Amino acid sequence: MKLLTVGSVAFDAIETPFGKTDKIVGGAGTFISLAASFFLPEQGIISVVGEDFPKEDLAEMEAKGIDLAGLQIKLGEKTFFWSGKYHNDMNSRDTLITELNVLGTFDPTVPEAYQGAPYLMLGNLSPEVQRTVIERLTVRPKLIAMDTMNFWMDIALDELKKTMKLIDVLIINDEEARQLSNTYSLVKAAALIQDMGPKIVIIKKGEHGALLFHGSQMFFAPALPLEDVFDPTGAGDTFAGGFMGYIASSDDYSFENMKRAIIVGSALASFCVEKFGTARLKEINKEDLNQRINQFVQLAHFQMMEL
Ligand code: AMP
Hints:
By secondary structure, this protein is α/β, with parallel strands linked by helices. The protein has a single domain, classed as UDP-N-acetylmuramoyl-L-alanine:D-glutamate ligase. The protein is 37% helix and 23% strand. Strands 1, 5, 6, 7, 10, 11, 12, 13, 14 and 15 form a 10-stranded mixed beta sheet that branches. Strand 2 and strand 3 form a beta hairpin. Helix 1 packs parallel to helix 8. The chain is globular, with a radius of gyration of 18 Å. The site of adenosine monophosphate has 16 residues, from strand 2 and helix 8.
C-alpha cells in the first residue's frame, strides 16, 4: 500500500448561487482518496463514520481500490455533518453547521496492513488526531503531507505547531498562510512556515492557482480559467489527493516531480468544482484528465524572442 489518507468522511449540505443540496457524501478524506484513486490501484483510508452512512457509498470507494480496514463504523452514532453557503464570488463561504458527531471522539486506528506505507496524507482534522496517526505508525513514511485550516489555528495553535514539526509538506490556502505566519507577503509567509517544520509549503490561491516552495526553490501553477464554477467544496482536498496520489504512484518527491504533481492536482480540482460534491470526479476518466492537463500546459506555455 503506497498511500494512507487520514480525513473526514462526511455528509455535506451545500448552498451556492446555482443551487442547493440536501445531505450528500463529502468529507476531506473522501475527496482526497477519490482523487488519488486516479493513480493508485489500492490505498488506505483512516477515518470514522456513523451507522447512517450509506453502504453503497462505501462499496463504491472499495471498488475504486480504497481499502476500508482503517474506516471505523460506529453503530448507533451519526456521521460528521458540515453545511456551508457560498457567496456570489464563490471565493468566500460561510460554515453554517458543523456537527462533529463521530469525529468528536475519533481515536484513529492503523490496521497492520497499512504499516510501512511510504506516503501519508493528513487531511484537515484536529492536529492532535493527525499527530496520533503519525505516532501510531511503526515506520515513518518517506513523505508526510498535511492540510489544515484557520479553524485549528484559532482553537488549537499550539497543537498544530507540534504536529507541523513532524511533517514534510504543508498544503494551505493564502489566507491561512498569512494567519499562521502573521505576514502578508506569501514569500515571507512560506519561509516562516518552513521554519516551523515543513520544508515544502504549498499555498493554494483558489482561482488564482498555487505556489510551491521547496526549500529555496519556487514554482507557480495557474488555475484553469473555467466558464462555470458550480461548487468549490472539496477542491482543496481534491488538489491534495491528486498531488499525493501522483507522487506516491511515481515514488518521486523531487522538486521537478512536485511541479508535475501540482499541475495534476490543479487539473483534478478544476473538474471537482464543475458539479456538486464528488459527482464530477466520479464521471471522468484518465483520458479526460490527460486532456485537461494538456490545457494547463498550453495555458502557461510561450516562446520568448530575444529583445
Ligand atoms: P474544502 O472545500 O477542500 O475546504 O473541504 C470541504 C470538506 O471538508 C467538506 O466535504 C467537509 O465535509 C469537510 N470539513 C469541513 N469542516 C471540517 C472539519 N472541521 N473537520 C473535518 N472535515 C471538515
